[in-house]
Amino acid sequence: MKNKSSLSFFLLMPAIFLNTLNSFTFDKKTAVSDFTTSAIFTQAYSENDLSQPTNSPQSDSIWTYIARPTNTPDRLAHGVVYDPIGDMIYMFGGTPTGQAGSNVDLCQEYDPINDTWIDKALMPTAKAWIQGAIVRRKIYVVGGYNNECSAINENACYDIATNTW
Q1: What is the per-residue pLDDT across 78-109, written as a single tens digit (0 to 9) for each?
Q2: Which residues on adjacent β-strands are paired with residue 49?
Q3: Coil, strand or helix: which one is 17?
């Protein structure tokens, strides 16, 4: 059996691996996220007994890549949140290079059922090194760093229902 700490490592590693966001391969998808990255998973099946699902993902489960956002750069230091009502994952901001002037104002929605990304309304300010929280279908992004590498005191709220910041 593989080392069981591999799942914990994946969920806690920094979000710099944006486009290596992975999913467990299962039959009924459910998305979950922590503060740094997201994983899509459902019932896990042991390789030794495919007839009985386990209660939680196992380290011997098969991982597969999900679709990459189209026409956007790979990036790090972005925010990711999960909307449990709409069953979607939102990714926003970040920087392709980690260098001054490279922050993006992108906001994108991932559909785990169809494995597709949709571009959403742009953030008011391109920023990176950000986190987000979702409350009642609104995404709150507090602070961050602008393209001059300065911490900014700008807070933004994205309304999922109206696709506006």
Answers
A1: 999 999 999 999 999 999 988 889 999 999 99
A2: 46
A3: helix
